[in-house]
Design a protein that fits this description.
With about 575 residues, the protein is an alpha/beta fold. Among the domains are: about 90 residues, Arginyl tRNA synthetase N-terminal domain (Gyrase A, domain 2), CATH 3.30.1360.70; about 80 residues, no CATH class; about 130 residues, Isoleucyl-tRNA Synthetase, Domain 1 (Orthogonal Bundle), CATH 1.10.730.10. The chain has 17 helices and 15 strands. The strands form four sheets. The protein has a five-stranded parallel β-sheet with strand order 7-6-5-11-12, with helices on both faces. A four-stranded antiparallel β-sheet has the order 1-2-4-3. A three-stranded antiparallel β-sheet has the order 8-9-10. β3 and β4 form a beta hairpin. α15 runs parallel beside α17. The chain is globular and about 85 Å long. The two termini are about 35 Å apart. The chain binds one RNA strand of 77 nucleotides through α2, β10, α10, α14 and α15.
Amino acid sequence: MTLFADIRALVIECLESLAARGRLPAGLDMGNVAVEPPRDPAHGDMATNAAMVLAKPAGMKPREIAAALAEALAEDARIDSAEVAGPGFLNLRLSEETWRGVIRSVLADGAGYGRSDLGQGQKVNVEYVSANPTGPLHVGHTRGAVFGDALAALLEYAGHDVTREYYINDGGAQVDVLARSVYLRYLEAHGQKVAFEDGTYPGDYLIAVGEALKDKVGDAYVGKPEALWLEPVRDFATEAMMALIREDLAALGVKMDHFYSEKSLYGTGRIEDAIEDLRAKGLIYKGVLEPPKGKQPEDWEPREQTLFKSTDYGDDVDRPIMKSDGAWTYFAPDIAYHYDKITRGYDQLIDVFGADHGGYVKRMKAAVSALSGGRVPLDIKLTQLVKLYKNGEPFKMSKRAGTFVTLRDVVEMVGPDVTRFVMLTRKNDAPLDFDFEKVREQSKDNPVFYVQYAHARICSVQRKAAEAGIAAEAGDLARIDHPAEFALVAKLAEWPRLVETAAAAHEPHRVAFYLYDLAGALHGLWNKGNAEPGLRFLQDDDPVATKAKLALIGAVQVVISNGLGILGVTPVEEMR
RNA sequence: GCACCCAUAGCUCAGCUGGAUAGAGCGCUGCCCUCCGAAGGCAGAGGUCAAAGGUUCGAAUCCUUUUGGGUGCGCCA
């Protein structure tokens, strides 16, 4: 059970009974009625805006409605008091027993506390990472990987049927470049001196691939024309890169449900099918685009291309899907891929891209909107850059200088848990500073530590209690009776609501910030025990109080654990 | 030139998709361990929410314009 939902239901119920008794007009739309935690604790435990929202449609004064509602609400056992305040807010104070019920709910539901049926089993496809299979994942991919993974988990937790998917760009020119680069390493493995010219990938990670190729085919391709080896080497190389990328993802704890190959779209009629669908809707035509203003490319000349009329769906210009030489542009397989997602029956699509792909948002949305007839929403989340620091000094990345930082480097240096949490301490569309030293620091300005510390502290208390032979149980909670304790419980009560709003907004970072707040509330209560011994969790010679307090912090532990679970971070029992 | 993202305390950032006196960390000032982990906590100082209009009971949040940053802009993915 979730307290905010319960109380909101109660408010609605009271409003309806007022309407039934003629004290309110019938048929009011209650959709905007909200029950929220007030910013100022002096305003009680919960506040509702019902009176202000309904004042206009009801043709009544806000405070008049609020007074009537207050009267009705006060009859419920859960409500201690309901006061009209300000322009028409109704501030509610809940009974202590109601708060104690939250502790019981949390402990009873355990890992399920906060789970929601908001998504109603809707099928959602979350596409993320989707890095070109030309090398290991780097820090930029890391953020997208963590964000996408946490978003997927959050949506699952909120009742969606989620598929995590990776689109492999193995159909374009860049995999030919990869093949040629591997071929050079292959010649090198045969003892030849080779030069890496512009347009090839000189990375060391291809040395092993070249050698593996040699082991597989011997000297079969040495001195042979490209036409003979390009295709098999390309397949070999992409497969090797994808194996590398899967390992990178595994190191970070990311598990995809599905890898989708761009190449599989070619020669199977699937691109043609998707384009045909658009053509049938009258959205494909041949035309010449205007040159972009202000940029003035030197080699511009008008060309007739096959275009998708994306301007019908809010794009700025129509987009080419076929080059003047008759080959597909990259956009065509992208369309086909999303067409495929739609035909697989997803109710909602989410793409996670790097911010440098911001220019493709409108055209992709246009395509999905056109292909699905507006049925399937596509949300595109852009992840901003990660700036690396070491002890406050910018950490410059350079492929040539060998200071190129890969995902694996980061994970090996700070571990997957820290990597994941820190990546979620900023909104996805805000740039993120990642300092290798600070994220490992054990102090309160490191949110990972701060949250983990709260969990570890609880475990520490539980160990002490176990030594004393006291078991936690949600039995008699009457000894939970202090405002500071109820404040902590109130924080726990917010969790289910937070899950829903974060999921609806597609913003997993809210979970990280919530956990930081919750940890703060626990640390605060802990330290109040310095001045007020009665607030300490372990009460000598008072097993009843101790058990109640153990139930309280056990509930905190459950919520921290549930939240970290969504972020893909393992809660620790001890700080080391 | 056009589009998208961003602008909140000295610094780094939240702000629950329109609510009451705008919050946290760092930094600064002063406090709190005979006590379950002080790796923490409490208190204080610090703001024309970039600017100006508009929408309404109510705006940091929504709309318009302006200023100032970032990203992108045909036959590359």
